[in-house]
Amino acid sequence: xxxxxxxxxxxxxxxxxxxxxxxxxEIWEIDKAHSNIYFDVRHTYATVRGQFDEFSGTLQFDPxxxxxxxxxxxxxxxxxxxxxxxxxxHLRSEEFFAVNKYPAMTFQSIGVKQKEGNHxxxxxxxxxxxxxxxxxxxxxxxxxxxxxxxxxxMVAGFETHFSIDRLEYLxxxxxxFEMGVIGRNVDILITLEILKNN
Length: 198
Hints:
Number of helices: 3
CATH architecture: Beta Barrel
Radius of gyration: 20 Å
Largest sheet: 8 strands, antiparallel, barrel
Order of helices and strands: HEEEEEEHEEEEHE
CATH superfamily: Lipid/polyisoprenoid-binding, YceI-like
Oligomer: single chain
Strand content: over 45%
CATH topology: Lipocalin
Strand order of the largest sheet: 1-4-5-7-8-9-10-11
Distance between the termini: 48 Å
């Protein structure tokens, strides 16, 4: 009986510690004026760069305890911007992003691991056009400091660079890839500044 009680106490204690640790990962707000989601894709011989102008997210990050960190992003597919309206409308069409049926891409983290120093890996599920695949995003944490422009506010910075196969998400049928016009691999660069009040 004493052994059973002791085991129960240990389990409850561990749960309490886990809950407390999760609470320590504070929620940060994305500074959209200084954050961007870019992408590069090969067009025959040239590289075409675009971005998504509308996105939102929730970030909980503790650099000393990355296991309790969490990230969720939602990106408006309609907000795609390559600076050429005709091309953007083609990308919004059923042939590519089908924005009327799939208005958002989402990412939900499943884990954050520290690699070395200020380098980490963010793992999670990326969903585009109803297709979900696990991705690993290596990212650099640049640190945290008081916002030089607003006393009492803290600012932190991150950057990640990774690639996905657009055809795995049905972004295009593969026709233009087979023609040698549009590459299947898309390089993604995300730069973030996040904010929280002291």
